[in-house]
Amino acid sequence: MEALPADRRAMIVAWAFAKLDVFAFTVGNAAIAATVLLALTLGLLIKGAPPGVPVGPHLASLAQIFPGYTVSVGGAFLGALYASALGGALGFVLASIWNFAHWLVLAVIRVRANLATYSID
Amino acid sequence: MERAATMSDAAARSGATDREVLRDTLRFNTLVFGVILGALASITLCALALIASGQAQHGGLAVVLIGVFLPGFSADWQGALIGLVWGFVIGAALGGIIYRLNSVHVLRQIDELVIQRQEGDDFPRAVLRLHGSSLGAAIGAAGAIGLVATTNLLVARGTAHESIRARLLAEILPGYSVSPWGSVIGALELFAILFVLCYAFASIYNGLAGRRQRR
Questions:
Q1: Enclosing domain of residue B128
Q2: For B127, which of A18, A101, A105 is closest by C-beta distance?
Q3: Three-state DSSP state, A3
Q4: Rounded to an integer, what distance in angstroms lies between the CA atom of residue B119 and that of residue B121?
Q5: Segment-wise mean pLDDT, segments of 10 residues, chain B, 215 residues
Q6: Rounded to two decimals, what is the model's pTM?
Q7: Is B110 close to A20, i.e. CB distance below 8 A?
Q8: Contacts of B18 in chain A (CB under 8 A)
Q9: What domain range is A33 assigned to?
Q10: Residues B40 and B130 in one domain
Q11: Ramachandran sector of residue B72 (left: φ over 0; alpha: ψ -120 to 50; beta: rest)
Q12: Exposure of A118 by Cβ count < 10 A (0-12 exposed, 13-18 middle, 19+ buried)?
């Protein structure tokens, strides 16, 4: 197999240790989580239920964790807000831990390399 | 940083191939991503079981639903501990699979996956870009395989007809049923949904990250 040029190798290593943009990751997760719950709620509302039967009783039990959430148009938007907060928090945690793990490994490598430069002689 | 220099220099000296350099970096990141996702899933399942075990029984439905697929997981202390183990095993496996699948074409896409390398006297700092199609295919495949596996586990256990809660998925995935054929239809739909969501997520992330780096 052909050896890579040095800059390409450096690029692979840079990619391996690249940081996630925490802000962008948080916003992306928040947007997707909000969209999913909004779509689920509105989808159930459009689908509807026979007269006398509640719409989406299982999804409505999300009110246990999202106070005030109901399977209604208003509830869909309130739920989307809650979901975006939860999704955003999860994204923030994931991106932060990812960056921290890489920072930690690089810090250990740096300390080891520094120690290796000291000679007893 | 020294590691970068060491890796690159060592690779250059030994005539390491692209695949060898990539293999080492992938192995490290797979481990990191697996452990992160495992820990998160583990804590989430444990917390969910403990919250549901309280007097208010918040999230009880979610615990019952998840318990259908994870034997032993229930809303009590014992169930929480079992959830801790299940969460780590499944999260880590899922993390590893997703990362590996996501990185299948990384060598070809490497120039698109890194934003703004700041060359200085230290390690070249870079911000990761996400490849929407690869991420979508990876997470979509993991979700689809998971759905087929768990549904057919219920069928094999002979409890398919009792799985009323599993059938709820048909509300979101039309055509899905707790049967081998239903699981395939559901898996295809789930793959499509997850692919679109991941693609959208990657687009938002890349757009924002790119804009912030240009500033």
A1: 113-215
A2: A18
A3: strand
A4: 7
A5: 44 58 80 88 90 74 77 87 91 86 73 63 73 88 88 80 71 85 92 94 92 79
A6: 0.79
A7: no
A8: 1-4, 8-9, 12
A9: 22-117
A10: no
A11: left
A12: exposed
